[in-house]
């Protein structure tokens, strides 16, 4: 048995409270508004998963899962989302999380400086394969558990280490919690699952990926893989406790309110498939263009002031989707030229858009100390546009839309989902998935009714078994 950290009495109390929440709290004891929030986050995330399916990173991740993470026995096997091939449960979660992670339109949580649904939703889809009788409210409760554990683990990690690690580092713990609930671990096994997930979770360097954007993105594919693997290892008797982000005395306060303060309802929804750090600048630009009827012909120069991390985003004309999603100046230029920033602008011909490239040369980005002081609680920017008729238009301080400060409505989220999903799956299937996910809040609903729509590839696509 691994020795407990100093302050073991408090640790036992904390871990017991977490175990009660993860393993024994019934879905009926989760507030209805929290389960409703989970259904909306599920819808938003799965829309991104669907849209990311045809992209290169998603195709590679699914092929890698077939080659490296083949199916074991039936209880530990799962079909890959919108693909249908059967691999291991961990492999299915890895593939879908990696796919989703590479289209940066999924939800996030400001205090963690990262994203949760990107790993939690793929984990649910993989785990549900072995649970044909899974009820809708119970599926949503599992999502809530993943968000609540991952969110607090992320906050604890950021508070106790100097490096800025990717979301996969702490998403691994949220996924481990979900898997532990599904496979019915006991308290001690759960404790070891957390320890294994924390130890093997990908503590990859986020700022390295910002400096050189690639398909590595936010590490959540590996986080999902590790989290599911950790629960299975713990089930078999593998020891890994303690998890310091749960059990160290100096992080105890991050866990005191679990089950009473709901992080699930405090996530943000992205209006653009671009790093959240760029959103305030995009929104400020959008507001000025709408208010004054500006198009590219009227813009001489754009000055963006934002926080430090935003100012470090990729500055040139991106030649890959990965770079485009981590570029503030490119997104601002795209908004001025096209009036929106969509999937078509960060991929394919959008990466050779001469009008956007010309506008990009007029965009300057600098760090503002006042905006940096408000990060990570807020993502702020201000935008100043000089026009051809000599005006200087100022947005004032702008906070990114979609979070608790300026939330999206359910209708906004549904519209975003359909915009992403319908071109890939068709209107009818996309709408049926939407209705099925939102219907999971109903007592007596079954996840299996939705599952019939989630695993087959889009019409016209076939994969070898």
From TrEMBL:
SUPFAM superfamilies: 2-methylcitrate dehydratase PrpD (SSF103378). Gene3D superfamilies: 2-methylcitrate dehydratase PrpD. It holds the Pfam family MmgE_PrpD_N. It comes from the Bacteria. InterPro entries: MmgE/PrpD_sf, MmgE/PrpD_sf_1, MmgE/PrpD_sf_2, MmgE_PrpD, MmgE_PrpD_C, MmgE_PrpD_N. Residues 272-434 form the MmgE/PrpD C-terminal domain. Belongs to the PrpD family. This is MmgE/PrpD family protein.
